[in-house]
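Progress against Task 2.4 (sequence-to-structure conversion) is shown through the following example record, which the project officer requested during the mid-term review.
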Amino acid sequence: MRQDFAATLAANRSFRLPLRSAPRLLSVSAAALLLAACAGTPHKRQPTYKDSHSSLAGLPARAPSAASAGTANDVLFRAIALVGTPYRWGGNTPESGFDCSGLVDYIYRNAADILLPRTSGEMARVEGRKVKRMTELASGDLVFFGGRGGISHVGVYVGKGRFVHAPNSGGTVRLDDIDGPYWRDHFAYGKRLLD
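Structure tokens generated for the chain above:
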């Protein structure tokens, strides 16, 4: 028995990462944490929906058909006004800070009276017209990003190739080019909730 323990201990001691691998491991771990931050929240809230909105499979469907270009402008201006607000995982108000889905929900709730689900993955399942090409996006469209693991980030398109989003821990809500190398490569699709 003692020999088995000694052999196990010796085997575990021999498994050490070379020091030169530490920065790479640290950067991969940090990237994984940043992507996970927008995928969920530390607590689950029960969504409530206004009577004027329909629902589908427990998620809000889309804005009433009376939604106009004025509402899209309200979404646009609300989004731009929040640039510079601190990032906070699980945050959903200007006072507490925002994560990506908290930001998008806050914008739509206050500018268009539309309550969205709490995570980017759930938002991606909300009914709306899917916009597959970046060139066809319109101001106010939701923009989704991800990879093989599914949707991991969401923002609001504000026109002229730019979108507002809460990108990562330690940062702030910002305006970025959707055609930047990272965003272009991870763009999944847009979703139009406003007619």
